[in-house]
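pinging the channel bc i need a second pair of eyes. not urgent but kinda urgent?? the chain im working w is below, pasted from the shared doc
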Amino acid sequence: MNSKAVVIPGGKYRLEWSSRAASASSGLIVSVASVVLALLFSGVFIALNGLNPVFVFETMARGAFGTAGGLSETLVKAIPLLLCGLGVSFAYRISIWNIGAEGQFVVGAIAATAVTIYFPGMPHWSYLPVMFSAGALAGGVWGLLAAVPRTHFQVNELISSLMLNYIALLLLDYLVFGPWKDPAGFNFPGTPMFETWMQLATFGTGRLHLGLFIGLGGVLVYWLIMYRMKWGYELRLLGANPEAARHAGISVTKQILLVMLISGGLAGAAGMAEVSGVSHRLMYSISPGYGYTAIIVAWLAKLNPWGLIVSSVLCGGVIVGGYSVQMIGLPASMSLIVQGSILFFLIGGEQLRSYRVRLRLTSKPGGE
């Protein structure tokens, strides 16, 4: 067990900390505490704007969960968050920091749209399966673009996956402002609307679509792989102790490539679900930051498959609630403050969870 100490100024006390194994129950406590502290922290900024924080949070909650329409819209936002959260969780399981879910989401949406543009004569029933496959494959390939430099050239995947986000976003801008721009769209930066058979079916008159079942199916598969299959055990071993995994005959390079392919594929599937189920066209700013918010979703759930459902709905509710507070004089970016605060306290809580801290009386003044 690694331990360190520092003498408090004055020499009478010293602060000691040592690493320790984190328990599952402490992870749940950290997640709940992070949300509570984030709300308290955000409340300070709300109060500085002259509003009652309790009233603002009540407004956000009512807007996201208080009506059938609000709950439906929250679930709409939760679908891409859940799929992207599954993707980054898959990678984090083996300690691969995939920060590129945003770019993988975008290229998935682009690839799905390409099917509608370049293959107009396919049978109607074939569009959705082909669009889903194209979106998932494009996202997976985008994930491999960060994985290959990591496995073959020791390039940090955190940097490469992050930079690939900007390439994907610039590609999106080029397409919707350029060759794919709808000539009948009144100069709007977007493609022509998809035909009905290219759109995911919705429930009732709202925007909630069949992508919900894609996300829930992904959670089930993730759970089966991680907790019911030998491969999942190998992945968890690789994440906990890479050296032990190597000695057990597990190919680290192969696993990283395969996991990043799947991780990017899930984010790409989220892009397909968004463009086919919600916007029904590829357009500028198709994502309000789903890939980045998915990092919070994964950390809040502690990579637990069922926890991902809860955290994605919570973060979706924060986004929808952010729209609600515009009616009382706050910008929709209030939701970004809450999300950022949650991530901040999650990271801090994880550090505290991983270390045991003690304050001891020194044996002699100035001594250690």
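so The first helix runs from residue 24 to 48. and The first strand starts at residue 3 and ends at 7. — does that match what u expected or am i reading it wrong
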